[in-house]
Design a protein that fits this description.
It contains 2 helices and 10 strands. By secondary structure, it is an alpha/beta fold. The chain has one domain: ABC-type transport auxiliary lipoprotein component (Rossmann fold), CATH 3.40.50.10610. Helix 1 crosses helix 2. It is elongated, with a radius of gyration of 18 Å.
Amino acid sequence: MRILLAFPLFALLSACSGLLPGSGPAPDLYTLSPATRFPEGLQRASWHLLIEEPSAVGGLEANRLAVQRTPNEVRYYADVRWVERAPRMVQGLLVETFERAGAVASVDRYTVGPRVDYVLKSELRDFQAEIFNNAKIPTAHVRLTVRLIRGARQDQVWTRDFEARVQARAATAPEVVTAFDLALSQVMAEIVAVAVRDTPPPRRGG
């Protein structure tokens, strides 16, 4: 977890009003980390990958940290922000994760043209803290639906759901963000492993 700007810690969900936006000090800004642990014997692929920015459902498009007390209710932490919109942050972390794994010949989020063998498209379906069933401690829930598309032909190679839940160690913002860091790292490491294992060599020139 990388904390870009930290203010004093605060109790999480001490009252419903703590979830509501309002005036006061500037919010704490947080970002997350790329995955650094991968399965042993991870193979290196020879293809070039473009990672698009994920689409997002519901209230997950913004840079606000979402929290749910029921499956049908979405609120936000008043004094906490991601450093950028959640989908864009996840896109950058996926690029960094593939780079750190050394799993493909090249990976980028802007490259276009014949150099791209595959395009990774995704949808951010869950990216919120959950406090269901009167739980005292939030759980970070991360779920990405990923499709791998052949760059030139635009046909789908595979699609998968990747999901992780990690309970925070305490009901404070830094601990909740740490839980997000762990959950997202699990998801991204699994995406890398599946990508190099289940993607066939590209058919270049045809």
